[in-house]
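Lecture notes, unit on binding sites. The following record was shown on slide 14. It pairs a sequence with 1-O-phosphono-alpha-D-glucopyranose.
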Amino acid sequence: MTKRIRKAVLPVAGLGTRFLPATKAIPKEMLTIVDRPVVQHVVDEARAAGIEHFVFITGRNKAVIEDHFDLAYELDDTLRKRGKTKELEALLADLPSAGGTSFTRQQAPLGLGHAVWCARDIIGDDEPFALLLPDMLHHTHGKGCLAEMMDAYNRHGGNHVAVAPVPDDQTHQYGIVGVEDVKAKVSRITKMVEKPPKGTAPSNLHITGRYILQPTIFNLLANQEPGAGGEIQLTDSMIALSRLEPFHAVRFDGDIYDTGSKIGFLAANIAYALDRGDLGPQLRQEIERLLER
Ligand code: G1P
């Protein structure tokens, strides 16, 4: 029997320097993909996978994320008085339940491994948990990425990362895994490396920013030396974890948008908007008109 996964960690402490000046006063996670903040899309994916509690690893100037996942009394009241019940219901449906969010601060930008370690007390030492990097949007018309990983977890237990192929000239930008069977949907991991120097990657399967981890990771992170880029790297502790417990890669077949990059952000806006019945057809016409110029 595997232990049920109830909690998800979302690291949202990053400064978003690639998006200045937009991110001077607004957290990058609150930039919108169509009309929903990036972080709301990721919470939606996690809720669809059965996550009940969201642990946000925040930093200075991130308070609006906390407000976003709370009731907004004045707004709700105004919508109610104006009879905008559909809008109000939609707002309320987006919220995790009362008590279903926790916020803790990373204090210093020491790396992803350090950010995850900051969740140790809230997760506790006997519950596996999900980890979602909010920059990375996993777009699919089928089952969500984390939901697929939950299926794999329920079959195999242990630890999981989502992976997808990247062009060979980009492997140095990501965590890369080697697997027993590159074609399989779920495969045992044989190798893991964070940001391998060009030409040294064990495959072109990159870690896409979705994880299911056992709490063993926290003890490993506590003693983790800085790695690539001088940061405390989650991948380095996952390598140590893979020597202790089973570790699987789950291939994600949808589209991944890195909304932390300008091209990824713009492409995500177009892809998500084209999917919408109320916007798609008209946007398609606008794009065609622009491309004809
Ligand atoms: C982090 C992880 C890396 C992963 C990537 C996905 O890197 O360390 O393994 O492939 O996220 O976006 P970062 O983007 O923080 O440099």
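Take-home: The first helix runs from residue 38 to 48.
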